[in-house]
Design a protein that fits this description.
This protein is of the alpha/beta class. It has three domains: 261 residues, Glutamine Phosphoribosylpyrophosphate, subunit 1, domain 1 (4-Layer Sandwich); 203 residues, Glucose-6-phosphate isomerase like protein, domain 1 (Rossmann fold); 140 residues, Glucose-6-phosphate isomerase like protein, domain 1 (Rossmann fold), CATH 3.40.50. It has 20 helices and 27 strands. A hairpin with a 4-residue loop joins β2 and β3. α10 runs parallel beside α14. The chain binds fructose -6-phosphate. Fructose -6-phosphate (F6R) binds next to α10 and α17. The site of fructose -6-phosphate has 15 residues, from α10 and α17.
C-alpha cells in the first residue's frame, strides 16, 4: 500500500542520473562500476568514477556509456581505493562531454562530489565564488556546489558534514549528492532533495545509490533518505541523519529490502525488455494476488475501501499520466465508464498542469506512473491537491515520490522494470485499474453479480492467456524481418484496443526509431488513409469482441489501397486471415480485458524489429527510464 504522507519537494527540474558510492574494506572499483551498469537505465550520456585509497585520488570520466568508462579505467585507474563514487549522466543542459561528466573535484583538489539534480541558482553562486578566487573547468552546477562546500569549510572552519549542510541551505534546486574529503578518508556525506538516494548497510561497509540495485548482493538492509535529509556515513560509527534546514536529528529507519538479485538481472534473456515482456504472466498474477478473492466474490484494495465515499461521490475521475502510463489511463477510461459508469477524463500530466484546469473537491484524480518520479505527473498531483481533489496514485516503485505525494493508492507489483521501454508496467497498471473499476462497479451496483464473477474469473485466466500469446514469438520475429526496413508504420484499433494501437506505435518508435502512429481504426479515412500504399505496414487489432465487423471493413479499405496488413486476431479467426498479409493469433477474452493480451504481440514486434536493426533495445537513444525533468 502507499504510504499516506506528504513529501515536501519544491523542485521543478531535475536531472535524471544515477549515483553510486562505496566505503568499507573492499575494493571500491568493481562495486561502483557494476553499480553504474545497473543504474545506467537512469541516463547514459556520460559516466565517471573517483577512487581514493587514503593517499591517492584517481578520477576517471568520459562521454559515453559505462562500458566506455570501463575501457578508459583499464588504462587510467591505478588506485585500489576502499572509497569510491561513480555517476552515470543524462544531460538536460550542457553537452555530454568528458569535462562536464561527474565526479567533480573542488579547487583545492580535496573534495569530490557526484550529483543527481540541478542547482537552479548556480550562476549567482558561481559569480560569488569567482570573486573569491575560485575557477571552474566545467559548465556544470555541480562544480559550483562542490566549491561552495569547500568555501564554507574554509570560511567557517567546520567539518565536511556541517559544510555540506550550510552550503545546501544556500542552494535552490534538487539534489541527491555524495561527497568525500581527502582529509577524512573514513567518511562520506550524502544528502537528498527531490532525487532518490538509498544507503545500503553492510558490516563495517556502506553503499550509496540512486536505487538499491547496485548493492543487493551485499546487503538487504537499507535506509532511504527522505527529502531535506543529510547523512554522515562514517566507518566505525553509527550513521547520523539530520534535517538540512533545522539541523534536527532523525532516527535512521533501516528497512529490509524485498527485491532480490534475480529480479534485476537478465536471467538468460538477451535484453531486459524481452525478460520483462516474458515476466508479464507473473507480474499480472502478483498484481491481483490478495486483491481478487474469487471464492469470496470480492475485490479488496485497502486504498479504495478506505476512500470509498470519495470515489462514489466523485463527479468524475481525472486520470493524469505520461507516455505508456497515459495509454494505460486511456484503457482505464473505457473500463471505468463501461463498468462503473463514472465519467473519466484522461490528461497528459504535462498539459494538465499548465492549462488552468477546472478541478474541484468532488474530483478524484488518479495518477499513474511506473517510476513514481515523473516530474510532470508529480506536478499535476500537487496542482490537483492544491484545489482540494483527492489523489489516488498507481505506481510501481514502492516509496517513490508520486506514491508518497498521493493521498492514497495501490501499487502495481510488476517488480523492477529496467528496460527503458515500458512493458510489464503497462499490463500491471491496467490490471490494477481494472480491479478498481470492478470494485467501484460492485459498490455502485452498475455490474451484475454474474458479470462481476465472469470478470474475476477471466482476469485470473489472463496470465495463462498471456503465456499463450507469448508463444507467437517466432512468427513475430519472422514478420519483423519482413518489415524491419519500413520507414513508417500505422497501428489501428477500436474501443478498448485503440489505446493499445497507440502503445504499439510508441513501442516501435522508441526502440527502433521507425516512425509510427496509432489511430482509432475508423479515423483512418479522415486523413491517414492518404499515407497507405504498398510500402506501408499496418498493424490492425481485429479481435472478435471489439467491433469486429467494423474493423474488418477498415481492413478491406486498407487492402484496396495495397497496404500490408498485420492482423492481431482471435484464435481460429478465418475472415481476417483471408484478407491480411499476416495474422498473429491471441486467445479470446472479454473485450474489457483484451488490451492485456493484444498488447503482447505488439511489444514483441517492436522488440524484434529493433534487435534486427541492431538498436540498443534497453537503452534507446535520447531516452531515460524516469523522466524527472519537465
Ligand atoms: C514508454 C515509456 C514512457 C513512460 C513515461 C512515464 O515505453 O517508458 O513513455 O511510460 O515516461 O513514465 P512513468 O510511468 O514512470 O511515469
Amino acid at each position: 500500500m502507499l504510504v499516506l504522507f506528504i513529501l515536501h519537494t519544491n523542485t521543478k527540474n531535475k536531472f535524471m542520473c544515477g549515483i553510486v558510492g562505496y566505503i568499507g574494506q573492499r575494493e571500491a572499483y568493481p562495486i561502483v562500476i557494476e553499480g553504474l551498469k545497473r543504474l545506467e537505465y537512469r541516463g547514459y550520456d556520460s559516466a565517471g568514477i573517483a577512487l581514493y585509497d587514503g593517499t591517492n585520488l584517481k578520477v576517471c570520466k568520459t562521454k559515453g556509456k559505462v562500458s566506455d568508462l570501463e575501457k578508459r579505467s583499464e588504462e587510467e585507474i591505478t588506485t585500489i581505493g576502499n572509497i569510491g563514487i561513480g555517476h552515470t549522466r543524462w544531460a538536460t543542459h550542457g553537452v555530454p562531454n568528458d569535462v562536464n561528466s561527474h565526479p567533480h573535484v573542488s579547487n583545492s583538489g580535496n573534495l569530490v562530489i557526484i550529483h543527481n539534480g540541478i542547482i537552479e541558482n548556480y550562476e549567482s553562486l558561481k559569480k560569488e565564488l569567482i570573486t573569491r578566487g575560485y575557477s571552474f573547468k566545467s559548465e556544470t552546477d555541480t562544480e559550483v556546489l562542490i566549491n561552495l562546500i569547500e568555501d564554507v569549510q574554509k570560511q567557517e572552519g567546520v567539518k565536511l558534514g556541517k559544510a555540506v549542510q550550510i552550503a545546501l541551505n544556500q542552494v535552490i534546486g534538487a539534489y541527491a549528492i555524495a561527497v568525500f574529503d581527502k582529509n577524512r578518508p573514513d567518511e562520506v556525506v550524502v544528502a537528498r532533495l527531490g532525487s532518490p538516494l538509498a544507503i545500503g548497510i553492510g558490516e563495517n561497509e556502506f553503499f550509496i545509490a540512486s536505487d538499491a540495485s547496485p548493492f543487493l548482493e551485499y546487503t538487504k538492509n537499507a535506509i532511504y533518505l527522505e527529502d531535506e535529509e543529510l547523512a554522515i556515513i562514517h566507518l566505525n560509527k553509527e550513521i547520523k541523519i539530520r534535517k538540512i534546514q533545522d539541523d534536527s536529528l532523525v532516527d535512521p529507519y533501516i528497512q529490509e529490502l524485498q527485491i532480490n538479485l534475480e529480479q534485476i538481472e537478465k536471467n538468460g534473456f538477451d535484453h531486459f525488455m524481452l525478460k520483462e515482456i516474458h515476466e508479464q504472466p507473473k507480474a499480472i498474477t502478483d498484481t491481483y494476488r490478495g486483491r481478487l478473492l474469487r471464492n469470496e466474490a470480492i475485490i479488496k484494495m485497502a486504498g479504495v475501501e478506505d476512500n470509498m465515499k470519495k470515489f462514489l461521490n466523485a463527479n468524475r475521475i481525472i486520470i493524469v499520466a505520461c507516455g505508456t502510463s497515459w495509454h494505460a489511463g486511456l484503457v482505464a477510461e473505457y473500463i471505468f465508464e463501461d463498468l462503473a459508469r463514472i465519467p473519466v477524463e484522461v490528461e497528459y500530466a504535462s498539459e494538465f498542469r499548465y492549462r488552468n484546469p477546472i478541478i474541484t473537491e468532488k474530483d478524484v484524480v488518479i495518477a499513474i506512473s511506473q517510476s513514481g518520479e515523473t516530474a510532470d505527473t508529480l506536478a499535476a498531483i500537487k496542482l490537483a491537491k492544491s484545489k482540494g481533489a483527492f489523489v489516488f496514485g498507481v505506481c510501481n516503485v514502492v516509496g517513490s515520490s508520486i506514491a508518497r505525494e498521493s493521498d492514497a493508492g495501490a501499487y502495481t507489483h510488476a517488480g523492477p522494470e529496467i528496460g527503458v521501454a515500458s512493458t510489464k508496467a503497462f499490463t500491471t497498471q491496467i490490471t490494477v485499474l481494472t480491479l478498481i473499476a470492478l470494485r467501484l462497479a460492485r459498490a455502485k451496483g452498475t455490474i451484475s453479480s454474474s458479470d462481476f464473477r465472469t470478470h474475476m474469473l477471466e482476469l485470473e485466466l489472463i496470465p495463462k492467456k498471456v503465456e499463450q500469446a507469448l508463444k507467437s514469438d517466432k512468427l513475430i520475429a519472422e514478420i519483423a524481418d519482413i518489415y524491419k526496413n519500413s520507414r513508417n508504420c500505422l497501428y489501428l484499433g477500436r474501443g478498448y484496443n485503440f489505446p493499445v494501437a497507440l502503445e504499439g506505435a510508441l513501442k516501435l518508435k522508441e526502440i527502433s526509431y521507425i516512425h509510427a502512429e496509432g489511430y482509432p481504426a475508423a479515423e483512418m479515412k479522415h486523413g491517414p488513409i492518404a499515407l497507405i500504399d504498398e510500402n506501408m505496414p499496418i498493424v490492425v487489432i481485429a479481435t472478435k469482441k471489439g467491433h469486429y465487423e467494423k474493423v474488418v471493413s477498415n481492413i478491406q479499405e486498407i487492402k484496396s489501397r495495397k497496404g500490408k496488413i498485420i492482423g492481431i486476431v482471435t484464435e481460429g479467426d478465418e475472415q481476417v486471415r483471408a484478407l491480411a498479409d499476416h495474422v498473429i493469433e491471441v486467445p479470446e477474452t472479454l473485450e474489457s480485458l483484451s488490451p492485456l493480451i493484444t498488447t503482447i504481440p505488439l511489444q514483441l514486434l517492436s522488440y524484434h524489429i529493433a534487435v534486427l536493426l541492431g538498436k540498443n533495445v534497453d537503452q534507446p537513444r535520447n531516452l531515460a527510464k524516469s523522466v524527472t525533468v519537465e
